[in-house]
Every structure is written in structure tokens, then in C-alpha cells.
Write a structure and sequence with these properties.
The structure is a homodimer of 246-residue chains. Chain A has 246 residues and is α+β, with helices and mostly antiparallel strands. Chain A has helices at residues 13-27, 37-44, 48-60, 91-97, 116-122, 158-162, 169-176, 195-201; strands at residues 64-67, 71-74, 81-84, 87-88, 102-113, 129-139, 142-151, 181-192, 208-218, 223-231, 236-244. Chain A has 8 helices and 11 strands. In chain A, strands 5-6-7-10-9-8 form a 6-stranded antiparallel sheet. Chain A has a two-stranded antiparallel ribbon with strand order 1-2. A two-stranded parallel sheet of chain A has the order 3-11. Chain A is elongated, with a radius of gyration of 21 Å. The first copy, chain A, starts with 12 loop residues before the first helix and ends with a strand. Chains A and B meet through helix 3, strand 4, strand 8, strand 9 and strand 11 of A and helix 3, strand 4, strand 8, strand 9 and strand 11 of B. The first copy, chain A, binds a DNA duplex (19 and 19 nucleotides) through residues 1-7, 12-14, 36-38, 46-50, 52-53, 66-72, 204-205. Chains A, B: Keywords: DNA-binding, Transcription, Transcription regulation. Chains A, B: It comes from Flexilinea flocculi.
Amino acid sequence: MNHQQPNFDNLSLFQKLQQELARIIEETPAGERLQSEPELASSLGVSRATLREAMRSFEGQGLIRRRQGVGTFVLDHQQNIETGLEVLESIETQARRIGLDVKMGYLDINKIKSDVELAKKLGINENEEAIRISRVIWVAERPAAFLVDTLIPGILEEKDLSDGFTGSVLDLIIKRGKPELSHSKTEVIASPAPSDIAKKMQIQRGDVLLKLDALLFDKTGRMIDYSQSYFIPGFMKFEVIRSIGK
Amino acid sequence: MNHQQPNFDNLSLFQKLQQELARIIEETPAGERLQSEPELASSLGVSRATLREAMRSFEGQGLIRRRQGVGTFVLDHQQNIETGLEVLESIETQARRIGLDVKMGYLDINKIKSDVELAKKLGINENEEAIRISRVIWVAERPAAFLVDTLIPGILEEKDLSDGFTGSVLDLIIKRGKPELSHSKTEVIASPAPSDIAKKMQIQRGDVLLKLDALLFDKTGRMIDYSQSYFIPGFMKFEVIRSIGK
DNA sequence: CAGTGGTCTAGACCACACG
DNA sequence: GTGTGGTCTAGACCACTGA
């Protein structure tokens, strides 16, 4: 049995397969299920491993969704949420503005003792308790973001989060009116999805995510929140104006 | 033969393997070669496929580099280049400021006929010729970025690029003094590395890259350049200040 | 329970670097 | 030529879903 074809045209089997897959996905109506992986692999003449590898990028682009035990489905074309990065605004606010439905999925609220690293980042003492809020944000019936906020003590209590919390720590603090928020210092990172986050977002471990790592400051210059936000590409569009000689 | 262990502790073999690998990489002096993949796989008791999957993230973090035909090497800890995203500045300028060595690797200059899409993006006529400049930027002896600029006609000629071009279209235009540059409208994207780019950057296809997609404007408001920049994570640190209610 | 996607294995061959 | 990483295959078992 021949285990690999020579690579004559400098186009990998993988690339050709992607073109084939793109066609198949395009021709499949939104919401429909694709053939099962073994069937597809066989009909395309490749192994399941290669097929799955090629499928990954389409899932990253938000064109398909694979669901264990169910099947692989073609998604309908999504509406982009466009955001100027310079403006600090919750994904919820952004999505609602263009009329998209927003829901909170999984929610986990914890008190955590800060280790050396976290204490340093938050500017609090070691072993002091911080509140950590993790949740998945669904937009238009699909997971769009995974958000983790770690707040210094005294900003929010658990009761603040028990009723009426819709997913945005930012909006909640703004609504309460204090502390008065000023700005965030945000680092932009590309990151493969860790296993635990991938599972909650219904994507594959290693899929590409855009991550915003932010430190949130109030108007007195005090840092109050360390926030980590993971976004599925193709869903949000982050833009920034860069100027010469600023 | 047992083909897969039950997942008792909810920690995948993959995750345990990553911890093991992290230890091995940590204990290996910078510049040293690791065992070959078959050796490592065997000594860790996993298949080569699983080992390679686990290695990917370390390569993405810039901790190791795999080189076909040579081996896998542990890199020394790199210095970060920190950049405020609001400022439009070449990676070359940024790197030199903190004393890092910058070189241009692969360089390709082409005239291309613009198709409908490109013409629309650049604001020129279909079939008009644009200049496309692709190159790899090495920082501190390692590929750090892959840059593609597509310029409207009349901005730069090929002779401008034949001598003294060090990799930055931005710096070159600034040096020539005209047109006078103003700002860029930049979209921030997380993207898996396409095969061709991965090869030139000496990383693996599918590795995570941070991509900046920018439209560059001069002071008259004319768009002159569409630039695509791919960055290896962990190398550049992009920051932006986000403000409330702007 | 049957059927789906998720993970992993063992082994083959290809492409590349270096002596 | 020898040895490395790069790609692909065939097939096994695991984990999950829904009937």
C-alpha cells in the first residue's frame, strides 16, 4: 500500500483537501449535517486524521461546528461585530447594538487566594482573596467568547453577581457607578485554545483564539480587575487606528 | 494492544505529556538539540503523532524550534518587543530601539494585476498593476514576522527596492518623504499559519499567528498600501489603551 | 443501544540537511 | 548515505449524544 503520494506540484494533499472541503461546505445548506467523518474520509480518499486536520481551519472560521456524538454541521454566515479597539466596551453592548442576541452560558464564580504572581499583577497582598468570574458568552446561539475576570477585593460581592448578572463585569460596574472606570491596558495575543476552554466553547483544543489580556483601572488610577478574554476568530472584528509619530 | 487509556482524571494524555515536555525543555540548555522524535516518543511511551501535537505549543511559545533534516532545538529566552498598537512604526524601528539585530530574510517583489477584490480594496481600477512585496523579518537570528505589502502604482518603483531596502516599506516611504503618511486602519486577527508562510517562517502549518491587516493612508486621505503582517506570538507584545466612553 | 466525533497508536514514505 | 523532521494511513478504543 502506498502511504504517501509524492508532492509533485508543491501543493500538499492537505491543501487540495481543503479546497474540496470548502466546496462541499459551500454546497451544503446552513444547518445541514455533513457526512460522518469515516464516510467523508473514505469518499475523499484520505484518512480520517488528514480529514480532521483539514476541517480544523473551517471550524476556526466559524463555517462548521463539530459536535461529539452528534455530527458536523454547516453554520449560517455570521454577522461580524466590529469594534474599535480603543473603546472599552463589553461584547454584550457591542452585540446588542447591532441587534444580535446575547446570552451567558457556563458561569463559575470563585474566591481565590492570590499567589505571588497574581498578587503582583493585581497590586494586592499575597494570600489576599480575589474574586474570579469565568463564563462563556453566546452570541446568536453560538459560543463567541470565554471571559475570565479576576477582581481585587471590595469591588463586587457575590450577591452582586447572583441576580441580574448577564455576563459583563464591565457593564455591571458601570451600572453600579463605582468605582468610576477609566481605561484598560490591553495586550493583544494570538493563542491556541487550552483544552478546558476549548471544551466550554465547543471548539477543538489548539484552535486559534484571539486573546485580550487587560488590566482595568479606575479614575483614581487604581487597578481593579485583571481580565482575560478569548474570542473565536471570524466573530468579532477588532480594529485600531495606528498613527505616525504619535 | 491497548490503543488508548481511559481518561480517569480528566487530564488528557496530551496534557500530561505537555508537562513532561515542559520539564525536559526547561532542563535542556539553550541551543542544545533534543532527542529525535522517535527516540523521545519511545522514551515517553507515546506515539510520534501525539508527541508532535504536544510539541506544537512549545514551538508557538518560541521555546523550541524544529528544523527538518536537522533536529529540534531549545531556544534561549527571547526579549520581547513591546509596542503600543496606536503608534504606527515598523518592527525594524521597534527592534532596533531595544538593541536587537534585525535582518531581512526571503524577499519577493512582484507586479500583480489587481483582481476585482484587490482593486476594490486599494481603490484602483481592475487590471491595474500593483506592486507586491513579501519578505520575512528576522529578529535576533530568528524569523519573527512575515510581511506582505501591496502598494498602489506610483508609490515605489522596483529600483527603490533594489538597493538599501531593509525590509520596511513604512520606513522607506518615510525616508523618501512622499507621500506623507498619516495613519493606518488596522484589523487585529488570530490566524493559523498557511503552509507557504509557515515554511518561510520555519514554523509548522497551523501554528498560531497574530495577524495585522492594515490599510495605510497618506495625509491627503488617499489609501496607498494594503499590508498584511504575520507575527510569531511571544516575540512581539502588542498593547493598546482602551478607554471608557470615547 | 447505535452512531457520532475525540484521541491515540504503529508504521510507512517523503523532503530536507549535512557530511 | 544517514538521520532528521513532515505527512499520511489504517485501525483501535474512548466519550458523548440521542433515540
